[in-house]
Inverse folding.
């Protein structure tokens, strides 16, 4: 989230799109309803009418996978009708920057596309520079090659007719959302966008969110109270796991994973540290060497010195373009390229697409370690239905892990708040926390490598590791400390003392920090700030529900990111009633500002978007794999053979794996005419491995269902409650029909398209409840993140004669 | 001052936190349920579910409406179930003076099948159920143990949206009236369900029958009370063949 949960109450318009917030983030609706009480309009755009829709002012059904068309139409509407916040757009976004002359866009492709490699050379996705190397600007926005005009041209193609035709949303419904939401394009109004996996799980997932970024920048909704782009993260700690790098492509604190191209520490630093020649751009990532060096110090302790590049050479380096996401990982496993591994707190046999393939892939392992609360479809894959256990060679070691109420530690919530929780009870039986499983394991490995040696054994033996697991100790290490006596300002810190903030981090080996973003969360003066529960506020903070003394928030306890865009050039809030920060002539009041520089008008200020190289909000976003502007492409499996925006049916750069089991339906394949979207539900958690073992939750949602419209049910001769078979090109799943008016047929490109929706939480280890919905979904993914396209594929539905997976 | 719930269905997201919290607090076992084509599960109140969120969906003038009704005992001001039960076994149903909570006691285990059916039918909201294992009649008891300890009922404690409210009857009535006035601006059919007769006051955003067959009383409690006094005693005598006090 750019903002935080409480801040939702400050919104004047709430657009919930790609999220079923009331069902999957029930607490969010506490704040949504507070906003609604004060007159905010709440809109839900989603394929299905859900419990979220029931509490919104209105629901707009949208064909799954057409969000960019929907958002493109809104961007076009805002531009055509001058609904944008011009002062903000000119001063704080890159609207006025002049784009390279070579840049263009033609029939669905941006310049630089290479069909052989299915990738873009992004050389022309850049800005013209003046003699000093500073981007040229035309603040009159008249230059035809400035971002604003290129953007206007790009989105002018998203006319109401085309958008309506491809999304299946009526023009009335489009206008209802467009008018209500763009009404916040004024200084004193704020609109927020709440999204979740309904936006990310597409082959255009990142560009769905880019569309929101563009729209919110146009409306001046970033940095303000009640605004922002708010990713509703899943588990209480999904934000934390992202910050600390659950995924392969980054190291903690959003820095790139070392690659083979960068063999030395210097290579890495040079290739990853952006340089800006603009004195008004803070270009915060210029400090990356300090954060990276401190991270390496935290990993390798005294072994890491400036002279040896802080042990950079010990890190594994991935090949350029290599994809180590789980889609590719399981593909390699299927192809016998992996012999063993750990699966921790995850049930991929249920939650990874094309489960039939994934389950076979796991059979190829010699050994497998699972750590989880319960046995799951993953730990027990070797004796799944239809498989003779004698034919599976895998030796499985299942370590029972503690439940989160059985352990102390922190979580980082969606609003980036670091919150400490105490354990309620001791772990049951032999269960241990992941920390208590992992720390001794690494100690054992270090011992073995010390004794027996091995390939690059230093990478393990030199790790700055601990004897015993103590969550408080890790919280300190994450914050970071001085490795020698150091003076910061006029204050002297002793070796071993905690760093007060990331400003104190250095690239000379004098500091250590496991994650620069968290520096300042645990200090000598105030202790472990994740434990703070101080409700006091200034009157200004009270107006917008800001509680700076409750827990701690990264970065530097800033509760609303980019908040210097909420004030004008003189530091005066655009919306005084809901001011986030204000310049009092000497310093900033309110939230912690994005840098303490004085307002822009003083000439000593910095542009507010300090994390981007040029300091501007990026309407033109050159960093992504699939384009600087968002563009509609159909899901990889689509009910239509062409769409009205270009001849490029699919994303030209989406990712996929190939094997005999990775089959796809053709566009508009008559065998699979129905769109399937998959989702979670309130009562079960993700793949259901935990919650299916909670009897009361299973009582409330006992079995796999498929929601469908009465129209489709009639066409297929299906009654509510009937057992049905759902088939895709990859698999077959049994479910119970839930025939409901909450799902409507769509009129798409002149033809009726039906959509069905299914949860994915049921699995065979809970007998009679159904089995993995993901046997239907395809292994295709977003080009930036490789997140799979769970949200849109094509299937057919028929009534079942008998059911074997679901007890009746 | 007796206690009341105010249940504002116009704020309910059917997260079922209340349904689950109730089960957890009373440590009620789970029923073996099936998916029957609806999210409402278990299908009805039962011995192990004193609280049930009912789902009902409608297509009204081309617009989808989905209504949620967190059903539970209404803790009637003059409980008809008590009136009916008293004609069979006095003390099987009692009312806590301090809070107004209506409680089924152990004595209810002595009811015959017919007695139980009779008491159940006396309830205008079809609440009483029977635990077949113990024979006792069961339902929501207003979390009397929690309330006496100064805590909120479990269902109210967990509610994230302000749907479930609990407090002194006067305060809850005032809150209900205030919310009704606000809701009426957008929902002209909104009403409070039998606020004078019950201590669990529902705000409904649309006509009551669109929520649940028994969202409002299905016969006047007063009528029923009179009926018990006159009719039930004689039936009880003949059916059971023994004088009931």
């Amino acid at each position: 989230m750019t903002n935080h949960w409480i801040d939702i109450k400050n919104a004047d318009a709430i657009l919930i799109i790609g999220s079923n917030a009331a069902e999957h983030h029930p607490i969010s609706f506490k704040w949504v309803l507070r906003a609604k009480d004060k007159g905010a309009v709440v809109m839900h755009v989603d394929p299905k009418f859900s419990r979220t829709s029931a509490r919104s002012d209105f629901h707009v059904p949208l064909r799954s996978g057409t969000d960019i068309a929907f958002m493109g139409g809104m961007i076009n509407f805002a531009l055509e009708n001058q609904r944008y916040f011009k002062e903000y757009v000119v001063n704080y976004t890159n609207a006025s920057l002049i784009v390279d002359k070579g840049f263009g866009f033609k029939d669905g492709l941006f310049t630089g596309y290479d069909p052989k490699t299915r990738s873009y050379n992004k050389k022309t996705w850049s800005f013209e520079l003046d003699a000093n190397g500073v981007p040229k600007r035309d603040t009159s926005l008249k230059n035809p090659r400035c971002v604003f005009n290129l953007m206007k041209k790009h989105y002018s193609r998203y006319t109401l007719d085309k958008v309506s035709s491809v999304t299946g949303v009526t023009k009335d419904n489009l206008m209802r959302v467009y008018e209500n939401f763009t009404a916040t394009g004024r200084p004193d109004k704020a609109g927020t966008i709440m999204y979740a996996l309904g936006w990310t799980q597409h082959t255009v997932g990142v560009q769905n969110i880019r569309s929101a970024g563009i729209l919110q920048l146009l409306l001046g909704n970033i940095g303000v109270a009640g605004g922002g782009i708010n990713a509703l993260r899943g588990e209480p700690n999904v934000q934390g796991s992202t910050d600390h790098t659950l995924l392969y492509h980054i190291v903690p604190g959003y820095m790139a994973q070392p690659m083979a191209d960068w063999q030395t520490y210097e290579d890495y630093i040079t290739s990853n540290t952006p340089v800006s020649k603009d004195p008004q751009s803070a270009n915060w990532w210029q400090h990356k060497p300090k954060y990276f060096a401190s991270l390496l110090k935290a990993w390798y302790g005294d072994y890491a010195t400036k002279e040896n590049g802080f042990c950079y050479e010990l890190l594994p380096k991935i090949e350029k373009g290599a994809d180590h996401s789980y889609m590719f990982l399981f593909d390699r496993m299927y192809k016998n390229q992996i012999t063993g591994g750990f699966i921790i707190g995850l049930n991929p046999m249920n939650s990874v697409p094309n489960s039939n393939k994934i389950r076979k892939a796991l059979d190829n392992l010699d050994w497998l370690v699972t750590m989880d609360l319960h046995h799951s479809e993953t730990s027990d894959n070797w004796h799944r239905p239809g498989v003779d256990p004698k034919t599976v060679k895998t030796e499985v070691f299942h370590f029972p892990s503690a439940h989160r109420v059985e352990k102390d530690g922190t979580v980082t919530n969606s609003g980036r708040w670091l919150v400490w929780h105490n354990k309620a009870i001791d772990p049951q039986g032999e269960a241990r926390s992941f920390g208590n499983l992992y720390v001794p394991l690494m100690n054992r490995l270090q011992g073995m490598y010390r004794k027996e040696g091995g390939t690059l054994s230093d990478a393990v033996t030199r790790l700055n590791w601990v004897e015993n697991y103590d969550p408080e100790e890790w919280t300190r290490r994450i914050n970071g400390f001085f490795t020698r006596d150091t003076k910061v300002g006029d204050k002297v810190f002793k070796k071993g003392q905690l760093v007060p903030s990331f400003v104190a981090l250095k690239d000379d080996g004098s500091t250590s920090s496991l994650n620069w973003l968290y520096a300042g969360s645990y200090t000598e003066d105030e202790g472990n700030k994740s434990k703070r529960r101080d409700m006091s506020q200034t009157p200004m903070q009270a107006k917008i529900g800001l509680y700076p003394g409750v827990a701690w928030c990264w970065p530097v306890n800033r509760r609303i990111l980019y908040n210097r865009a909420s004030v004008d050039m003189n530091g005066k809030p655009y919306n005084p009633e809901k001011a986030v920060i204000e310049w009092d002539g000497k310093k900033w009041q309110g939230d912690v500002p994005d840098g303490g520089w004085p307002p822009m008008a003083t000439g000593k200020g910095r542009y507010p978007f300090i994390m981007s190289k040029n300091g501007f909000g990026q309407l033109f976003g050159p960093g992504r794999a699939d384009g600087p502007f968002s563009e509609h492409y159909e899901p990889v499996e689509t009910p239509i053979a062409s769409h009205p925006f270009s001849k490029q049916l699919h994303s030209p750069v989406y990712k996929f794996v190939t094997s005999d089991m990775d089959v796809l339906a053709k566009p508009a394949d008559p065998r699979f005419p129905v769109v399937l979207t998959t989702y979670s539900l309130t009562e079960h958690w993700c793949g259901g491995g935990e919650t299916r073992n909670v009897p009361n939750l299973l009582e409330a949602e006992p079995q796999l269902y498929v929601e469908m419209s009465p129209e489709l049910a009639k066409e297929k001769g299906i009654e509510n409650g009937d057992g049905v078979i759902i088939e895709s090109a990859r698999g077959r799943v049994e479910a119970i029909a839930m025939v409901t008016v909450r799902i409507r047929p769509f009129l798409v490109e002149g033809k009726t398209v039906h959509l069905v929706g299914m949860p994915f939480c049921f699995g065979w280890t809970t007998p009679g409840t159904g089995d993995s919905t993901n046997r239907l979904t395809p292994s295709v993914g977003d080009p930036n993140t490789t997140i799979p396209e769970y949200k849109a594929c094509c299937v057919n539905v028929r009534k079942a004669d008998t059911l074997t997976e679901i007890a009746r | 001052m007796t206690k009341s719930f105010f249940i504002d269905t116009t704020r309910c997201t059917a997260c079922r936190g209340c349904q689950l919290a109730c089960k957890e607090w009373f440590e009620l076992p789970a029923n073996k349920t099936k998916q029957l084509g609806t999210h409402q599960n278990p299908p009805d109140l039962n011995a192990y579910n004193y609280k049930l969120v009912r789902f009902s969906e409608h297509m009204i003038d081309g617009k989808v409406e989905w209504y949620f009704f967190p059903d539970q005992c209404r803790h009637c001001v003059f409980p008809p179930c008590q009136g009916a039960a008293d004609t069979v076994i006095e003390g099987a149903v009692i009312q806590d003076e301090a809070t107004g909570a209506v409680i089924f006691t152990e004595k209810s285990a002595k009811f015959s099948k017919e007695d139980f059916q009779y008491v159940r039918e006396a309830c205008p909201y079809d609440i009483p159920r029977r635990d077949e294992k113990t024979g006792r009649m069961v339902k929501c008891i207003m979390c009397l143990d929690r309330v006496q300890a100064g805590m909120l009922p479990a269902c109210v404690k967990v509610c994230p949206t302000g749907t479930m409210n609990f407090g002194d009857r006067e305060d809850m009535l005032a809150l209900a009236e205030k919310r009704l006035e606000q809701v009426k601006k957008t929902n002209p059919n909104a009403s409070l369900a039998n606020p004078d007769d019950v201590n669990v006051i529902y705000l409904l955003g649309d006509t009551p029958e669109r929520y649940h067959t028994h969202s409002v009383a299905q016969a006047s409690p007063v009528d029923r009370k009179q009926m018990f006094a006159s009719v039930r005693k004689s039936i009880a005598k003949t059916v059971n063949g023994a004088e009931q006090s």
Summary: The interface with chain A takes residues 11-17, 19-20, 23-24, 29-39, 41-42, 57-59, 64-68, 160-162 of chain B (CB under 8 Å).
